[in-house]
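Q: Here's a chain of 321 amino acids. Please give me its 3D structure as tokens.
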Amino acid sequence: MGTELTTSNLSIGYSQNQKTKTVAEKINISLQHGKLTCLMGPNGIGKSTLIKTLTGVLPPISGAVAIGAQNINTLNHLQKAQTIAVVLTEKPSAGYMNVRDLISLGRFPYTNWQNSFSDKDEEIVNNAIQAVGLSDQSNRPLGELSDGNFQKAIIGRALAQDTAVLILDEPTIHLDVNNKTIIIKLLRKLSKEANKAILLSTHDLELAMSFADKLWLFSENEIIEGLPEDLALNGSIYNVFSESNNFSEHESRDLGHIDFTGNEYGILLLKQALIKHDLYKAIENFTTIEVKCSENNCQIIYKQNNYLLIEDFIEYLSKDN
């Protein structure tokens, strides 16, 4: 599983009043095949600037963005469209299009000036419609879709581009909790089944902790890259989000019989990690779990059959349960 998109000592920013404003410097991150990566950080810190730079909309101040060995800023518009599919926050105008019309737009980088579709183009569009679960609504006008299905159609258009990289700027921002979960589950599934490198920016820490393979954590002139659990345990997530009160508790399936005590933040992370990695069944016989967190580490203390056991959080999660 190789690396698809990388940055090398990338500095990003934009022009303001004829001056260049630098947002972040010396960024070295990678987006990989088969993984869903979430980009997170406070409002206004520069997530959209990063996305525009990664997709070639904005030039870097210095450094480079590469797809494989190819610098993205050496590609023309057509080549970029065949390499990276982008879903932006703004909803496109629906006009008189239906679901199939919108998703078919993803094939335009591959068609001739008459926009003639080949059998292969039709097959790719059909596969994209099926992948986002809209087969039974393919001829439905966009104006009649729910917000969740409209967002699925936009993602379907990006899938029809048939690119190795898919980048989405807050695709769930206008959706309710149920549709947010549906969309992020869909993206995780697509990353695995289609072996795509997928990046999405989000403010929803709970969903990112539950479904992301990796996090890019944007904080004060730097981007920290790592596993969600690792960034939680080393304090990186807490340092960025502790003042936002964004630690709502995850629904803890099949864990109601266990008495969780101790550090609330650590308890949340433990529950989410157990559910995310399908390990909650391994503790079904436990009666009490206590979570103790220091500045740089968390431990879990659990009681089973009157024996008190202490294990390191990461060691516990890495066990083959």
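Q: Can you summarize the key feature?
A: DSSP finds eleven helices and 15 strands in the chain.
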